[in-house]
Amino acid sequence: MNTPEWLKPGIYGVAVGAALVGIVGFTWGGWVTGGTAEKRAMSMARNDVVAALVPVCLENARIDPARTEKLARIQEIARYQRRDAVMEAGWATVPGADTPDRDVAEACLEALEL
Q: What is the per-residue pLDDT across 52-67, written as a single tens digit (0 to 9) for each?
């Protein structure tokens, strides 16, 4: 079978064009793989859950009878230890959970503006 002369450059053009479209799409076009999309969705969902639980933490802090002493202790210690202090205070333990949540404690600490 005789193939036309233009077929070989046409096939090369399609291959190069497809490669360029893929490169441009994934670098500047915002395309992502399914795994990356899933990771981003899980991260966004986690951030939304933490944001929804911060008012619970703040309420736990507000109703704590030893609030003043605990806040004074949290302010005395180094910044990198404050999240653990909020967790020890019990404010980051949401109803239905047995243990405090680190992300909720961090967000609660920011909301307390310490």
A: 999 999 999 999 999 9
* Encoded tokens for 76: 């005395």
| Spatial contact of 85 and 74, defined as CB atoms under 8 Å apart | yes
For the chain, the straight-line distance linking the first and the last C-alpha, in angstroms and rounded, comes to 80
Do residues 108 and 92 make contact, with C-beta atoms less than 8 angstroms apart? yes
CB–CB of 107/49 below 8 Å?
A: no
Q: What six digits make up the tokens of 4?
A: 């036309």
Cα separation, 35 vs 97, in Å, equals 29
**pLDDT band at 113, cuts 50/70/90?**
confident
Q: Which two tokens stand for residue 60?
A: 């736990």
